[in-house]
User: What shape does this take?
Amino acid sequence: MSATKPGAVIGTGATADVLAYGADVLKLYHAGVGREPADREGAILDALEEAGIAAPRSRGVIAHDGRWGLVMTRASGRPFAEAMLARPEVVPAYIEALVALQLSLHAVSVPGLRPYAARLGEHIGRAGRLPPAQRERLLERLVQMPVADRLCHGDFHPFNVLGVPGNAVIIDWVDATAGPPLADLARTYVLLHQFAPAIATAHVERYLAISGADRAEMEAWLPLVAAGRLAENASADEIAGLLALAAAG
Assistant: This one.
């Protein structure tokens, strides 16, 4: 692996760039980010491989130009979001595929993942835009929410699914946890609603219809998920909506 040189940037995210790396890709975290996220995602990908999940395979953690990175197998295809935003007529088929993929994750448990509530609690605790009393109230509510051990992606949306319906790979697993499926669904809704509200609503509706899950239970997660999102790299356009949603809790 040391003989391979990173190539062109093929994608950029909030915390890392993705570069060509021979037949693979290198997810290169931004300067100042420590090694821990790369190690964590590599371990998650190893566990997903054992579970047979459609995800990239880890090739190991490396350092490059003062930055930490994770080498992974290359996922072919373009993000679902590109087709969905460009061609409205394909949206129903892509939503059907997205829901099927998310349900398949929620059907399994993967050993060694961090509990969902622990991660969300940390984020709510760091949400500085929340009034202290509201933050404490939300943390108290989190303790009372259902607990489960299902595989939760933590960042499941059409930009993180590559390929076409029936032949897709899910990427960006650094936020994966073990938790309640409806919390993960609520997270998907919060992330999607900011740029594609109609798709966000349709995704939730189809998930609930197929799974028979309780809408009220999913909606109970929304203020908590929105509060946690405030501790991340939320855009300026998102913040007002997130604050309003968090206040509903």
Observations:
- The two ends are 49 Å apart (CA to CA).
- The longest strand covers residues 58-64.
